[in-house]
Every structure is written in C-alpha cells, then in structure tokens.
Design brief:
Distance between the termini: 19 Å
Radius of gyration: 19 Å
Structural class: alpha/beta
Number of strands: 9
CATH architecture of the largest domain: 3-Layer(aba) Sandwich
Shape: globular
Bound molecules: phosphoric acid mono(formamide)ester, norvaline
Number of helices: 12
Strand order of the largest sheet: 7-6-5-8-9
Order of helices and strands: HEHEHEHEHEHEHEHEHHEHH
Helix content: 40-55%
CATH topology of the largest domain: Rossmann fold
CATH class of the largest domain: Alpha Beta
Number of domains: 2
Largest sheet: 5 strands, parallel
Length: about 300
C-alpha cells in the first residue's frame, strides 16, 4: 500500500490533524494488520501511556498493538509518578519524550494534551480528552468499512450526549463526506467549535443536528450511541438521565432504521440507559467487532507514527 503523500503530521491530537486520504490510509492499513497480510517490526521502541482517567479498551489495545509491533509499553500511572504531584507538563513532556518513542495520553482538557504536544519531541496520541476521542473513531470507521465495504451512500446516526466521541465522529464524517445525523436532547448538543471546524474541513459536510431521535434514525444504516455522562462529568448523573428520556437505543427506535442497520457503541455501556441489553446482544450489534478493531487501528496508527519518527 502506498503511503499518503501529504503525511506531515507528528501528533494525533484530533481527527482534524489528518486529511481524508490519511484517514482512509489508516483504515486500510488497520484492515491489513487485522488480516495479517502485513507485518512491521519496531523492536526496542517504547510506547508510554499516561492515563488520568480509567480505561479498559484503550489501554489494553495500545499495549497489545505495541507488542504485536515488537515494541514495549510503559504504563505511567500519574499517581505513582511526579505527574500526580503537579510536576509541570513542560518538564514531564521533555523528559518522557527522551525515554519513550511515542506517548498516548488520556486526560481531561484538550489544552493539557496540546501542552504535552508543544514540549514533547516524540509523537503524542490523544487517547481521549473531554473534547475528542480520535482513536475510537479510527476503529469505528474500520468497523463500518468492514461491514458495508465502503462509505458511499451511508446514513450514520448518533443518538445521545454531544460528547467527545460525537465530536470526533463529526470531524471524521466530515472528512469522509458521510451524512452524519446527531440526535441529542436540547442543551446536550455537540460542541459549537467542533461543528464550525467540521464545515471548514469540508464545506459540503452533510452534518445534521436535531433533538428528535426518531427523525435522526429514520433510514439510518448505522446507529451509534455512548454513555449519557462521560468520565469527569458524572456529578449530576441521575438528574442528567431525565433529559435523555426517548434517547435509548431500543427495539422501538431501531424499527425506524434501514433494514440493513448496524449498531455501534464505543463501550463501556450502561444497559437500560443509552441502549437496551436486547439491542446490544442482537445480530445488528457490531459492538464487539468495533472493540476488537481498537487494537488493529491503533497498531496502524503506531506503525505510521513510528515509521516516520524512528528511521
Ligand atoms: N472505548 C473506550 O475508550 O474504552 P475505555 O474507556 O475502556 O478505554
Ligand atoms: N464519552 C465517554 C467515552 C468513554 C470511552 C467518556 O468520555 O467517558
């Protein structure tokens, strides 16, 4: 496979850091890794993981992906390093990037991530912030491509909180030219700046935002949801849940979708809240393929970043 010619980025902080060609390149590379038709060796290369929030999939899929590439991972727990005691990011980033070849960081503010990127001499990967979850959507679009073969004429509907996952889906769908419909309760719509950015990435962007889940799901090929309260925003969880009445992915809501529809969820899921157990376990659910694809897509991402920086 040919590498995209305009591959110039070093950090993966946002989906908007990459072009449409690069996104497609990464998805295809991930497919090749999954099928075992390519292999790449990055012996002695080290991935550092700094996670300020809990994680199962992202942490483990990065560790396994790095090990499949022949490298190793260091799990840098902020509570047992000086990070948790407030050492400035500009010092931490300069030191860790002398030891590690790439760093994946999960934290709260996007600004904190940007500060790491400013001072690190090695690639920084966004492993989730309050604003974006770009690694997740690499796996999401790999899952969609596997299922539908291409991205043409698909209607993609996200139902739920206008959060980090929704934001990254907005940017990626805009790059790929996919019709994305977002149904969120009033006051829980996605970030305005992200919406603006999605139109600057692609003026023909087909994003539609509504407060009506039935309208959004009607004719959809892909139905996606995520938790109603993201990590770090759980203080008024019960109150917040009341606003999401009618936004559960259940048998009634999916009955409005196209007959070939699939259901996606980035996980972890709260059954009975944003999605029912019945739909999660149905044959339309590709949720566990999607979770597996985190590993293949991150293997592709690591391989691309390491091949550029570790000559
Ligand atoms: N989807 C996802 O990022 O899961 P984790 O929080 O378990 O990493
Ligand atoms: N929006 C969720 C995603 C978890 C993978 C959160 O930020 O908690």
């Amino acid at each position: 496979m040919q590498k995209s010619k305009d591959s110039t980025w070093n950090h993966f902080l946002s989906i908007s850091d990459i072009s449409k060609d690069e996104l497609i390149y990464l998805i295809n590379l991930a497919k090749d890794f999954k099928k075992n038709i390519i292999s790449q060796e990055f012996k002695k290369k080290v991935l550092g993981l700094i996670f300020n929030k809990a994680s199962t999939r992202t942490r483990v899929s990065f560790q396994v992906a790095m090990s499949r590439l022949g490298g190793t991972t260091i799990d840098l727990n902020p509570n047992t390093s000086q990070i948790g005691r407030g050492e400035p990011i500009k010092d931490t980033a300069r030191v860790l990037s002398r030891y590690c070849d790439v760093l994946a960081i999960r934290t709260f503010s996007q600004e904190e991530l940007n500060e790491y990127a400013k001072w690190s001499t090695k690639p920084i990967i966004n492993a989730l912030t309050d604003i974006e979850h770009p690694c997740q959507v690499l796996a999401d679009f790999l899952t969609i491509k596997e299922h539908f073969g291409d991205f043409n004429d698909l209607i993609f509907t996200y139902v739920g909180d206008g959060n980090n996952v929704a934001n990254s889906l907005i940017l990626a769908s805009s790059l790929l030219g996919i019709e994305l419909r977002i149904a969120s309760p009033k006051n829980f719509e996605p970030n305005h700046e992200i919406i603006k950015k999605s139109f600057s990435l692609n003026p023909k962007n087909q994003l539609k935002i509504t407060n009506n889940p039935v309208e959004a799901v009607t004719g959809a090929n892909i139905i996606y949801t995520d938790v109603w309260s993201s990590m770090g925003q759980e203080e008024n969880k019960e109150d917040k849940d009341n606003n999401f009445d009618g936004f559960t992915i259940d048998k009634n809501l999916v009955s409005f979708a196209n007959e070939d529809f699939i259901v996606l969820h980035c996980l972890p899921a709260y059954r009975g809240k944003e999605i029912t157990d019945e739909i999660m376990e149905s044959h339309n659910s590709k949720i566990f393929d999607q979770a597996e694809n985190r590993m293949h897509s991150q293997q592709a991402l690591l391989s691309l970043l390491l091949s550029r920086t570790c000559k």
